[in-house]
Structures are given as structure tokens and as C-alpha cells.
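Sharing a chain and its predicted structure for anyone who wants a worked example. Both blocks are below, sequence first, C-alpha cells second.
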Amino acid sequence: MAASTIQIRLNPFTAMCHKCCVSFVFIYRQSIITKGTIMATAEQTQSIPQAGTLMAQRPAWLDTEVYPFASHFISIEGNRIHYIDEGSGPVMIFLHGAPAWSFLYRDIIKGLRGRFRCIALDWPGFGLSEPAADYEFSLMGNSRLLERFIYKLGLANVTLMVHDSAGSIGLGLVGRQPELFRAAIVSNCFAWPLDDYPSVKRFIKVVASPIFGFLITRLNFLTRYFVRGVAGGRLSKSERQGYLGATATVAQRRQHHQLFKALLSNPDYLMDVERRLQLLRDFPILLTFGNDDAAYKAGWMQRFEHMFPNHRTFVVEGGDHFPQEDDPQGIVNAIINWWDTDIAK
């Protein structure tokens, strides 16, 4: 009698949990092997200026050929915020999620700085930014920090690119103060309550749990999973180090875990974001989604398309949750075409 085959279909976010668990054993072993190397490299980091717009001494783990940008620093609410500011022209601000930092946008900024003023900041505790002693990651808190950042730099008519958790942070400010913004570029994120997506909420609850907190903060699980599994095949050694070096300490990783807890801690904020965005149906946006990501498969891109009829869409075929790493040149081309066709008319 022939053996039968049983196929089990998992929803996208359950499948993601499964992939994370499968990756754990490998990452745990690798963390033991490489922990000493990463920490030794981190100890070679040079001092960073306290404030101002100065060129920083670069950490030893950061390849200046891969990330060839001058570093600037500004103090906001006791946080020392690192940002890069490249090119001239219409202003674009790029916002990251986890486990990323402004490094995520390096190739996109290289492709756009000839036509735009490209600014990318690191949230407190991410990348090269340092948090205030009492800082705790929150969606509303970071949205207000972004507002202060824009005002302190005297920016106007901003085009905002958001990704991951920065979607609800950045678009929250767009909803509250649309007069600051000209357009938005939206990538693999959400800007509404998660009640309609129970599998997403379960996934976030798992990652926000104490056991995952241990994996993230003590073993650097989130970043290692990203550089190995999500974008591993596309990153050079220097690029992998650009992510791993930025999460070399427990304090840095703790903010990553706090981010996931923040996604569940203030549903009223997400309700307000959605309500305000529904009043901006004519606001122009470009959607750039990887179609091999759970966010795409959950229909989030289509929900944005319905929310903003004045949209254009660029799908990164085979791209996952970080299309900026999958096809940066394709995204650059899509942004320029959208800008020339819809925005600069």
C-alpha cells in the first residue's frame, strides 16, 4: 500500500514563526562562535560627537565604502539622534523598522541623492543613535520625535518613505500634520489596528514575549535571523557586519524587543492613525512591496491601495519583508518614474 502524503498549509505569519523556530538552533550555535568576534569589533568603536553636524569617527565594523555617508547628530529630548543628509533638491526622509537602521537605505540613497535631498535617521537605540536614559520605544513617542526632527531641521514639503514598524510611526505624523508632507512611499508595513489579523497579533505576541526577549537581547536572534534568512543570500560580509555591528550590545537589542511590545501596547494610537489617514484620500503615495512577504500575502498592499486611490504600485517580484535589500535599483527607478509622472507635474 503506497504511503500517502499529508500537506499542511500554514498562514503566512504562522509559517514565519515556524521558520524562526527552525532557524533558532543554527543561530544559537553561530552566536556562540561569533559572539567574541562581534564584541571585540564593537570595542574598537571610536567616540561619536555629542551633538552637532560633524563627521563622526566610524565604528570599526562599519565599511565606509558600503556606507559612504557623512554622519550628523542632533539632540532631541535627551536622545542623540544620528542621521545622514545627502544630496540637494526635494526632501525625502527614510524611516526604518527592526532590526534595521539607516543602513537599510544605503543603496537607495546612493541612487537618489543626485536628484533629491535624502535624509535617513536612526531611532534612539538603533544604528548610531543613542537613547536618553529614560527612553522607551513607543509608536506615538517616535512619531513625536520625528515631528521634532523635522521642525529642528527646518524641513518642509517632505516625501516620507516608511517601512515595517515605521509605517504607523511616520504615517501617524502624516495624518496629524499633512501640511508638512508632499507625498509618501510605503513599503511592507501597516497603519491600522491589527484586530483584523489575528495571526499577526499572535506572531507579535510571541516575539514580544519574555522568552523571545531573551533570544533577541542575549543571542541577537532577530538580527542574525535577518542577515542569515531574510536577506542572507544577498548581503556581502561587510553588509552583514553593518547590521550585526549595530546590535553588538544587549542595550541595543533591548530596543528591538521593545519595538514589538510597542506594537501591541497602544491600539488607540493605531485607530487614530487609520482614522486620520482616511481623510487624506487624495494624498499621493507610491507602494513598494515585496510579494514573498507575509505582509503582502495578508493583503496589506491592497488595503493601502484602497485607502489611497491616488497611488502607484511597484511590486518587487520574489522580494521579502525588506525589498530595499532585494531590489534597491528597481525601487530607485520606481521612485523617479513616480516622481516625474505624478509629483513634479
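Comments welcome. Strands lie at 71-76, 79-86, 91-94, 117-121, 158-164, 181-189, 285-290, 311-316.
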